[in-house]
Structure formats: C-alpha cells, structure tokens
Amino acid sequence: MNVQECARLLAERDRFLIVTHRRPDGDTIGSAVALCCALRGMGKEAFVYPNPQVTDSYMPFIAPYFAHEDYEASCVVAVDVADSNMYANGFSGKVDFAIDHHPANTGYAQHTLVMSEKSACGEIVLLVLKEMGCPITPEIATVLYMSVSTDTGCFAYSNTTAETHAAAAELIAAGADFQHINKALFRTASAARLQLEAMIFTNLRRYQNGEVNIAIVTLDMMKKAGTTEDDCDDLAALPGKIAGNKISATVRELTENHCKISVRTGTEFDASAICRKFGGGGHVMAAGCEISAPPEKAAEMIAEAIREVWK
Amino acid sequence: MNVQECARLLAERDRFLIVTHRRPDGDTIGSAVALCCALRGMGKEAFVYPNPQVTDSYMPFIAPYFAHEDYEASCVVAVDVADSNMYANGFSGKVDFAIDHHPANTGYAQHTLVMSEKSACGEIVLLVLKEMGCPITPEIATVLYMSVSTDTGCFAYSNTTAETHAAAAELIAAGADFQHINKALFRTASAARLQLEAMIFTNLRRYQNGEVNIAIVTLDMMKKAGTTEDDCDDLAALPGKIAGNKISATVRELTENHCKISVRTGTEFDASAICRKFGGGGHVMAAGCEISAPPEKAAEMIAEAIREVWK
Fold it and tell me: What architecture (CATH level 2) is domain A3-186?
C-alpha cells in the first residue's frame, strides 16, 4: 500500500480505533493523536486505544482521545507498531491498517504502509493526512512535531534526515507549539532522574585512559534517588556521553545477583562480540546481555571482557 | 544593505580577513569558516582572524583558516559580531562589512547586513553565498549546520523557527556531516563537566515543594571535578531543568566571599525584580546579580529574596 492508497482506503472507513505500541513513545502517541484529530476533522468517529503504559509526560496529549470501554470500532489502525505483540493481545488478527517506519514490520495488518527511510512514523502520517486533504491544524502540527522530534532525540540522533527537518519546518509553519514540546520533553527531567544521573557519574568506573566507561545502576541507587521505571529511559546512553569515550557499558541491577548489561561502541569495536561472551548479542554499536552476579562483580566481568578485545 | 547588495559588494573585493566575536561560539565560527571557504572557491584570498579564545572543541573547524601574522587584508568582514568590542581592539573603525543577526548591532561597519529575525548568523551567510552563486559544498554545509544548530541548542531553544529547520534540511541535503557535529557538540561532555553536574545535583537546595531550585557551584567543587572555564558553559540552566521548577538560581563562587548569581524564571515570576534587591538586573526570565558572601550564605539570601516574591 502506498500513501495514496492508504489515504483513499482510510477515507472510505469509519469508527476508527487507533492503536499505539507497548511502552509508547512520542512517535506512536503523536502519530495516533494526529490521525485521530484528522479523522474527526473529516466528520468520522475516531478514538485512541487507552494504552495503560502511557507515562505521565505524554498523558496530557493522548488521554483526551482515549476510547471508552464500550466503544465498538469497525476499523483498527496501528501506528508505529512493528509487530503484533502490541499492548493488548486482543488485537491479534484484527488490525485493518498499519502505518509504520520499522523495516522489520511483520505485515500483521490487512493493509500495510511501511516507509522505512523515514525517521519517524509521524512523517508518514503527515503525508497521509495531506493526501487525504486534511488541514494541518496547530493541534495536529504539535503532536506530529512531537513524533519527529522525540524519535530523533530533538534532531540530534543519526537517524535524522533532511526530510525530518523539512517536516519540522512545515509543522512549525503550521503552528506547532514546538516550544512547549521542547521544554516538556527535552529540557526537563524529573528530580529523581537527575539524582540518579548524579549518582551514576559519581560512581563511574573508567579504564584505558578514560576511553572505556562503565556505569553501575543498583536497586539501592534507584531507591535512594526515588526513581520509577519512567525515570530510567536510555540509561545505557549515559556513560557514552563522556568526551573521548570509545566503549561504554551500563550495568543495571534487575534483581539481587542479576544484572542487565548494555554495551555501546563507536565504529572501532564490536559491542555484540563483547556481549556474546555472556550469551547476549545485538548490533555492532549497541548490544546487551545478562549476568547473574551482583552489579560490582558484573561490572568487573564486563571490564575484563572489554580488556580482551582492546587493541 | 540587503542580501543582494552584500553579495554584489563582496564579489567586488579581495584579500579578506573574517573576524569572529569574543568567546566565539559555533555560530560565529561556522559563519566565518563558511564565508572563508566560499570566497576561496571564487578564487579570492581569504583568511579568518586567529581569535585566541577559540576553545578546543571548535579548533579543528577554524584553525586551518587562521591568517598568518603577516597577512595584509584589504577587506575586513565581521560575522555575528554585535558591536565593535570584538576580540582585537585593532579592528575598531576598520570593519568593511558586518553580517549579523543581533538586533542590537551598533552599525560599527561601513556596510551592515542585519537580519534579526534569523536564529543564527549562519542562516544569513547561507543566503549571501547562494546569492553570490557559490556552490554549497559539504564542507561549507557542515560549518553552516554547526552555526544553526549551536545557536538554537540543537533546535531545542525557543529562538528556533521554521526557517531554521528549512536551512538545516537544505544543509543536510547538501552533504553536511551533521552526525559529527551533533555527536561532538551536543551528545558529548567532558568528564569534568559531568562530575561537576553530579556534584551540583547532589547538593541542590529545593524549596516551595520543589518549585524553587538553587544550585551552588563552589571553587572547591570545580577544583575537585577538575573543570576549566570551558566546562562551565550555561551552568545557570541546570537547576531549571527539574520538572515542576518555577524559579531557579545558580550561585557561583567567583572568589572567596564573592558570588555571581543567575536567576531564571518562567512567565509567573520576574527574575530581574529578585536580582534588583542585590543591585543586579536583567530580563524578566533571566537576570543576575553579585553578592559578597560565601556561597552557602549567598544561596540563603537568594532563597529569602525568592520567598518574598513567592505568591
């Protein structure tokens, strides 16, 4: 299905339920809300599935569009959902449309629009809405700006493209309240998160003249900082922020004597080779594994595994 | 002077020296290097004034274009320089062209092109280069991307506009190595800076249910963290990052018993009114003052002044 077909087929349907993915992020939420608003603007009935995993910072954007319990949809649209293990199992085999940018989309929906070259699903939704002739209102522009900005780390990640910036330019010109999104999502952190980061950098382990950095996150640190799961996004990126870093690892204590390890590298080293030593794997620059040991011991084991590949 | 006139007049000249401002940032450096490269591409002689305040992270971009001591320029161009107190006093009265986006540009140059609606001077340089018919090479695109991204905090600050994103889209399409710039300038911090931030958040003082946050930065902390002046950019922004913050202050010990205070507020409170109590001032949302007291005492005095305006 291409953008034109998707727009035409959606225009023929009504009573939409739009589904977001597990642990929903700004892209799936922004895409869902934008599509919901636009369909309503066309005189259709549309609601968003009340995903119970939406975190506090996103709730104000999506909650007003949550479907009531007794809403009976006749067309289910999944946005930014790569496979059918989306939040509610009840949707298996019942998804009419999937709009997505994940190359690994499994084709679980009846009609699938995948554009894997797009940084964010919101960029594809923008194309579909324009093809349907929907006006891009300031409200729609704001949530689509949320999509493209969150999936690219506010345009700082390497998945950003010229088209991402062109979409942002178009959305800001259409009245997106990008200042609110930027302040709320990129320039603010919870006090607990900032306390946890402070503890992490205070206890950082540095090796090889500072080119290897290992962060340890214990259950005790999380308790002292008062963090919830919401505060623990992307902890794996922290030690790699240090200037000169070449290999970083984050050791996170999941339960007593059991840790999850995330390894990040530049182009010089293979993160997955390091993690394979412990039965894990992943990509060349980002991989993971689990080690059954207390965090300090797990950190030593990872440091030793890194020492073995160091050249 | 408008863009067309600026392009025409520059094309008539040769033997350029391009001047950056004091404590040069990514915008003045990116603008200078881009203009220098483009003029050389037109077959002209062009160098950049070797500003001694360029910091390590920017040196690789600008150093290859530094003028030798005995270079005799016949046309001096200042970029992103608001007034004539640019670095070297020797330029007073000798600047032929100023290209700038500061509304407060004092008109110190013979010919001035000011476009104050632009987020970055680099956006104006891009317009001038295109008007001159210069090809936007990947090298030029990279340093102009540095201009627009640094002056907008990687598109997160409120001075970002649709045109900023449109310029970024154009520069990335022209081959800007934005991934290198983003990694080097936005996703990396020195170990000393991260240690200092950790200490700041560990010792944060919070009042009014966490809506007032005061950071203290002592000379002792800076010594322990091993920071240099380069590591201390924008410390005033740190306590305001906390979710729910309404008034933040950063107390920085300059010398024993003497502190500089930066106050930041949202729209509800007047930062300059708080600072005026101590003989300082500034803008409604960003103001400063100095207090002759040890940092702990100065923080208490600021907390008390905030308590007086709290409603």
Answer: Alpha-Beta Complex (3.90)
Q: Which residues of A touch B161 (CB under 8 A)?
A: 172
Q: List CB contacts (< 8 A) between B160 and chain A.
A: 172, 178, 182
In this predicted structure, the answer to whether residue B262 has a pLDDT above a threshold of 90 is yes
Q: Decide if B191 and A206 are in contact by the 8 Å CB cutoff.
A: yes
Question: Which one of 1.10.10.10, 3.40.190.290, 3.30.70.260, 3.10.310.30 gives the CATH number of domain B191-310?
Answer: 3.10.310.30
**A165 with B168: Cβ contact below 8 A:** yes
Whole-number pLDDT of residue A23 = 85
User: Closest Cα of chain B to A121: distance in Å?
Assistant: 18
Can you tell me the distance from the alpha carbon of B34 to that of B183, in angstroms, rounded to the nearest whole number? Answer: 20
Whole-angstrom Cα distance, residue B101 to residue B82? 8
Q: Does A59 touch chain B (CB under 8 A)?
A: no
Structure tokens given for A38: 């636009």
Domain coordinates in residue numbering, chain A = 3-186, 191-310
| Average pLDDT across chain B, whole number | 94
- Cβ-based contacts of B242 with chain A (< 8 Å): 188-191, 194
Q: Give all strands of the β-sheet with A46-48 in edge-to-edge order.
A: A46-48, A16-19, A75-79, A97-100, A111-114
This prediction's pTM: 0.86
Tens digits of per-residue pLDDT, A165-210?
999 999 999 999 999 999 888 888 999 999 999 999 999 999 999 9
* Topology alike, domains B3-186 and B191-310: no
Closest residue in B to A212 (Cα–Cα): B191
The pLDDT-based confidence of A92 (bands split at 50, 70, 90) is: confident
Q: Among B29, B32, B51, which residue's Cα sits nearest to residue B128?
A: B32
Whether A293 has its CB under 8 Å from any CB of chain B: the answer is no
A81 by DSSP, 3-state: which? coil
Please compute the mean of the pLDDT values over residues B88-109 and round it to a whole number: 88
Question: Which residues in chain B have Cβ-Cβ distances shorter than 8 Å to A208?
Answer: none
Residue A172 contacts B, CB cutoff 8 Å: yes
